[in-house]
Amino acid sequence: LAKFNLTLDPNKIQNCKTNITYLGFNISANGYAPSEDNIQKVTKFPVPQNVKQVQSYLGMMNYFRHLIFNYAEVVEPIVNLTRKGTPFVWSENCQDAFKVMQEIILNKPTIKNYDESKPLFLTTDASKVALCAILLKKDGENFYPIEFFSKQLSPSERNYPSIRRELFAIFMGIKHLTEYLYGRHFYLLTDAKSLTYHMNLDKQPDIVKRWLLYLQDFSYNIDHIKGCDNPADFLSRMQIEDVEVNNLFHMGDQLSHSNIKLCQSMDSCTSEIMKRIEEKDSKTFQKYFIDSYTGLLMFKIKSGKDQILNKIYIPRNLVRDCLLVAHAPHFGVQKTYDFIKNKYFWPGMYADVKNFCENCCNCMQNKPKRKTITHSIPKHHLAPGEFLAIDIVGKLPRSVDNQNYILTIVDHYSRYLEAIPIPNTTSNTIIRHLNYYFSRFGLPKYILSDNATYFKSDEIVNFYESLRIEHRKSSIYYPKSNGLLERTHRVLKESVASISQKVHDWSTSLLFFKLHYNNSKHVVTQYTPAELFFGRRVNIPIHSYDDPKYVEDSSTYLYKVQK
């Protein structure tokens, strides 16, 4: 302080503090996040009723935009209401954007402190409506966000070719983050493979020449990365906070019988139905009843000709909690719906599930839209465990338990998946984990793999021969010949990316994914993999709230499985 001739007022100094609140942010050694007061203001802000209230809301949210990934694209439906000549209609898209922003702020987005000693990475991306940039610092093996930047594109900018939009994103990102990047060397990460070629063309539009002239003042290396590896995509698009391993399968008590019963009594619709049942209304009895064991309102639904299934009636004030639990593994609409309909009911259930899944932020970020392709149904094998397909996913970012790859094993008959984190792809590692798999589920007759070196080494060949397992290989340069695993890998990557809250926490999220994947109905078999593999359903979090009414003896259970 003396060196720079600065003085401090003792009355305004706070000593021995681990964090302070300054200009609306809570600042600590770990970074800074919105203060509790500001979080309350955002979450309590009413839904805007006119353009003036929209402008007030956007003015408040703009204060936090540097903490929020792709802010401009998220709030675009709301911003459109402020444009001249646009009638004020608060649409469903506006409401979804409003809810997303509230949830983001409620989760306290935290930005790490800038550190000159750590290498800097800038990743950019551009869509048809907006562009974004993320400034990251690398600390050890981890990447941490320092600041987010996003901008909506004007009508003329939206007409740019895609490669020019990518270059525009780089120009705007560097321009916005000049205070961090000027005078420092940094790494520019982009998934636009032809960008370097276009930047070196002799003939360029004048506007592109101005961008390139500006970029010449900065020192950087351009590194091309695949779209799935871009920090603005896949695993690195996750939140940075740690997740508690012990709470991996805990979904809260919202769907406990006691809480459902309480919410049913408070909901106007369900309480009215229960009142009619107590008054012994004959029409009500045809569809509903109160379970004598739990006291819950139940809904009767026909399944087949004579079978009647009883479902718990979820009141409207619990629908969102039920959707959150069912969609926790971030599967698609049909699988999420199947999770719920096995046990619960409420009017308009499928429409609610469809709307919730299609507007899930994590799914939109980590799952690209695809055209539906009709596949022929593969030939089934005679029994579970007879024919296995194996492969390896990776190399992945090193996990918290020092794993770099995933060994995947899929049973062709049941589609049952085993996904095992492994540190390397040596023959000894693969054999060790296959032995562990065989000790639990028995020896297969056939194993299908690709032609990777680690799957056809002498050790692996001798291992299969010693166990009399026939090794089959998929076609070279045609991964679709092992299509079952290729599709499984796609779902695995997308779901784990959506579940995980930290880049290096994927091995923990993998456990959660496997549980739900093996207990969701498969589109080909129309059964869950666990049902075909074990002969029974396995409990998942959304089904784990039951209080058992009876315990089945072993002989009865065995008879049912054999039947």
Automatic annotation (TrEMBL):
Domain Integrase catalytic: 380-537
InterPro entries per the UniProt record, alphabetical: DNA/RNA_pol_sf (IPR043502), Integrase_cat-core (IPR001584), Integrase_H2C2 (IPR041588), Retrovirus_Pol_polyprotein (IPR050951), Rev_trsase/Diguanyl_cyclase (IPR043128), RNaseH-like_sf (IPR012337), RNaseH_sf (IPR036397), RT_RNaseH_2 (IPR041577)
PROSITE patterns: INTEGRASE (PS50994)
GO CC, one annotated term: DNA polymerase complex
Keyword Ion transport: no
BP GO terms, sorted: DNA integration
Molecular function via GO: endonuclease activity; nucleic acid binding; RNA-directed DNA polymerase activity
Keyword tags: Endonuclease, Hydrolase, Nuclease, Nucleotidyltransferase, RNA-directed DNA polymerase, Transferase
Cell membrane listed as a keyword: no
Domain of life: Eukaryota
EC number: 2.7.7.49
Full protein name: RNA-directed DNA polymerase
